[in-house]
Design goal:
Elements: H1 43-57, E1 71-76, E2 80-85, E3 92-95, E4 98-101, E5 128-129, E6 140-141, H2 146-164, H3 173-183, E7 187-189, E8 210-212, H4 214-217, E9 227-230, E10 233-234, E11 237-238, H5 246-263, E12 276-281, H6 287-300, E13 305-310, H7 311-319, E14 324-329, E15 334-339, E16 350-352, H8 356-369, H9 382-395, E17 406-412, E18 419-426, H10 429-432, H11 445-448, H12 474-480, E19 501-505, E20 511-515, E21 553-554, H13 580-585, H14 591-595, H15 600-610, H16 614-621, E22 624-627, H17 636-648, E23 660-661, H18 672-682, E24 691-692, H19 693-699, H20 701-707
Parallel strand pairs: 1-12, 12-13, 14-22, 22-23
Antiparallel strand pairs: 1-2, 2-3, 4-8, 4-9, 5-6, 7-18, 10-11, 13-24, 14-15, 15-16, 17-18, 19-20, 20-21
Helix pairs in contact: 7-18, 8-9, 12-15, 15-16, 15-17, 19-20
Length: 711
């Protein structure tokens, strides 16, 4: 450091070059003032009193006005924006997409492949066949392609379940289906006989600079018409891959919301000041995402006030229950969180980087292996993606009894061409595709992570002190302990160290369990529940385990019950103010990213385990609420119940039957969170948690934290 420049680190007071005396901090015991000691002196109490005075001066609302008619409920998602008045029965489901006019040349849309592909240049061949000894359930991998090895692990799991339920396997079904699909010729449907004919936009629109929702998807060729089509939301955050600036994302979100409100709900922009907003945010949220979204609604759009709620809590409101383990299987991500008596347990939150889009893409890969008759398919085009979405909704199932060599049909509607009707034969592809959320080895997590970046700059600090649970939860730590290196010291006290069992997959695709002995603890993290007489599971991601990690392999297919073994753990460090991220970042492990690779059933169990002791685990596993678009897959409830039961029965004492709670009658699980937020918006008690634009202007995120205690 050059001479003459003061060293700020050694200057504790920061007043070295002044003669002003810096007074010491006052002793709170000697302070006699009552300033801000009572509830009536806070800004919230003063605002509430001022609001009552204003309401007394205003005229009473008319009796014809329904409760909640001036409350807008917004639930943004990757594919759809659920929006509507709180008084409405169901929301509007608008594709969360926008098309803006772009100067040529218009960038070509790119499709990021999230599923492994077979080797290119090879003719698709059947790599799985029955064993020569006559066992129809045996699987013989006859290829050296890594994709076939990953496929073999999923097929082994399916065959074992079919053996358990005594279901027969059709031999050479894939060859029969492939032969039929290769020879099939499409049937042309005249326009007069097509009831779902799409009105494509094929001519340039001079007066439309922006197209929102379904109109943006009806563009015949966006590049030819000079439009750039983008989706502003990706998973639980903004879509930073397709946008060079996050301000452009916020502009598109603002345009989508204002356009939908004016065109579909007849709410004009000058009237926004009379409307309140209930915003549904992800369970494991990014604080910058919440801040920017609230800023758009209160400042840019100018709504009257806002209330922010998490998805899991809103889903329990919609289902009419107070405690549950909420599993939200979305298009891009799946989130799991436990709700206990109307409160989301922060340490139970975990987000998986897989969802319905992965099922759709995997179904496409599987159908390509049996000569999919629609040869000219390109998933980067929206109308081709819609074809696969329709096939997924009608074909996919998780019920093993539905697996059969059946004949299906589907319709392809392309702009400027007649409608074509295809026939398709498929066997176990319809169940292997949704099984990828339980066997995620075929998902390329690293590839899906490319291009995404965080919104806040790393050098910018938040105005609210960050807590470790904002970045890494206990459920994530439990799920990644098997990836940590072994400890260097061995203490003698072993009473406070649970023995997690991490689940991985061997080379042949079968699941194995390994008992991990190294359990580094973290500062300010909720300690794992105490072990009484069983080993608690910590199931890791599908990635491999270090070769030097001590483990004990246990046969999970047999009836052998894992028993705890006394293993020396790492000593407990002293509590300090170091966040969890620094403890795990120093080891080179991205805990949040590694935990996002878990199978769905394992992540649910780890979330329930992080919520508390054995009673909490039993309580939440007996009330599992599945929401989201993929919850509509037939057999999803039984598939989750059977897999969770197999994990929980040997590990949780006195474990009763795992129960999947169905949504209320005639309620779509895709809109259940919106329904719960609408219920909240109509309650009288919500008046205490509204955040006005004046409060946001003065306090910012601190004001939101006072109103929403989970921030």
């Amino acid at each position: 450091m050059p001479r003459g420049i003061p060293n700020a680190k050694k200057d504790d007071s920061g007043m070295r070059y002044t003669s002003m005396h810096v007074p010491l901090a006052p002793n709170p015991k000697h302070v006699g003032t009552s300033y801000l000691k009572s509830e009536t002196q806070t800004i919230w109490s003063r605002n509430a009193a001022r609001k009552k005075e204003l309401m007394a001066e205003e005229t009473a609302p008319s009796s014809e006005q329904r409760r909640g008619s001036h409350v807008i409920v917004i639930h943004p998602g990757s594919r759809f924006l659920r929006i509507g008045r709180a008084s409405d029965v169901t929301p509007l489901s608008i594709p969360n997409v926008i098309a803006r006019r772009h100067k040529p040349p218009v960038p070509v849309p790119t499709y990021v492949e999230g599923i492994s592909r077979p080797r290119k240049g090879q003719v698709p061949q059947l790599s799985v066949s029955a064993s020569p000894d006559g066992d129809e359930y045996a699987v013989d991998i006859a290829s050296d392609d890594p994709f076939d090895a990953k496929m073999g692990s999923i097929i082994v799991s399916l065959r074992e379940r079919m053996r358990f339920y005594k279901l027969r396997v059709t031999c050479n079904a894939a060859r029969v289906a492939s032969t039929f699909n290769e020879q099939f010729k499409p049937e042309i449907i005249p326009e007069v006989n097509d009831p779902f004919l799409v009105d494509w936009i094929q001519d340039p629109l001079e007066d439309s600079e922006v197209l929102v929702g379904e109109r943006a998807l009806r563009l015949s060729d966006p590049q030819l018409l000079n439009y750039s089509v983008k989706w502003p939301i990706h998973g639980k955050n903004f879509n930073t891959r397709d946008y060079p600036s996050h301000q452009m994302i916020l502009d598109d979100i603002e345009t989508i919301i204002s356009t939908v409100l004016s065109e579909r709900l007849n709410v004009r922009r000058p009237d926004y000041k009379d409307y309140s907003v209930v915003l549904v945010i992800p369970d494991f949220y990014d604080r910058a995402y919440v801040r920017e979204f609230v800023n758009v609604l209160l400042v840019s759009l100018g709504f009257k006030q806002i209330c922010v709620q998490q998805e899991s809590l809103a889903a329990t409101y919609g289902a009419g229950i107070s405690s549950a383990c909420v599993v939200d299987i979305g298009a891009v991500n799946s989130s799991i969180a436990c709700v206990d008596e109307g409160l989301v347990i922060p340490d139970s939150r975990i987000t998986l980087n897989m969802g319905g889009d992965d099922i759709t893409e995997f179904l496409y890969v599987l159908l390509e292996r049996i000569s999919f008759p629609y040869r000219d398919i390109n998933l980067a085009r929206w109308y081709d993606w819609a074809v696969m979405e329709d096939l997924k909704a009608r074909l996919c199932t998780l019920a093993e009894g539905d697996v059969a060599l059946n004949l299906y049909d589907f319709v392809v509607r392309k702009p400027g061409k007649p409608t074509e009707k295809y026939g398709l034969r498929a066997y176990d592809e319809i169940i292997l595709a949704p099984m990828c959320i339980f066997e995620p080895r075929v998902i390329e997590f690293d590839r899906k992570h490319i291009g995404l970046r965080s919104i806040p700059h790393p050098d910018v600090t938040e105005e609210i002190i960050e807590h470790p649970v904002d970045h890494v939860t206990q459920a994530m730590i439990i799920s990644t302990q098997h990836l940590l290196p072994p400890p260097s010291t061995v203490p003698t006290d072993v009473r406070h160290s649970p023995i997690p069992i991490s689940q991985s997959q061997d080379e042949n695709g079968g699941k194995q369990e390994q008992q991990e002995v190294s359990l580094p603890s973290t500062a300010h993290a909720t300690p794992p529940p105490a072990v009484e007489s069983f080993a608690q599971p910590t199931v890791g991601a599908s990635g491999g385990v270090p070769a030097d990690a001590p483990m004990e392999v246990i046969d999970v297919e047999g009836d052998v019950k894992p028993s705890p073994i006394p293993v020396p753990p790492q000593p407990q460090p002293s509590r300090s103010s170091v966040p969890v991220t620094s403890n795990y970042g120093g080891l080179g492990i991205d805990v949040c990213f590694e935990a996002s690779k878990l199978p769905l059933d394992v992540a649910i169990f780890n979330s329930a385990r992080a919520s508390g002791g054995d009673d909490k685990i039993r309580k939440h596993l007996q009330a599992v609420l599945v929401i989201g678009g993929s919850a509509l897959i037939p057999g999803m409830a039984h598939a989750l119940e059977s897999r969770l039961q197999a994990i929980a029965t040997p590990l949780v004492p006195s474990m009763d039957k795992v129960q999947i709670i169905p949504p209320p009658k005639e309620v779509d699980p895709r809109v259940l969170a919106w329904k719960g937020a609408a219920v909240l918006g109509k309650m009288d008690s919500v008046a205490d948690i509204w955040l006005t634009s004046a409060d946001w202007d003065v306090l910012g995120m601190r004001g939101l934290r006072e109103r929403c205690f989970y921030l």
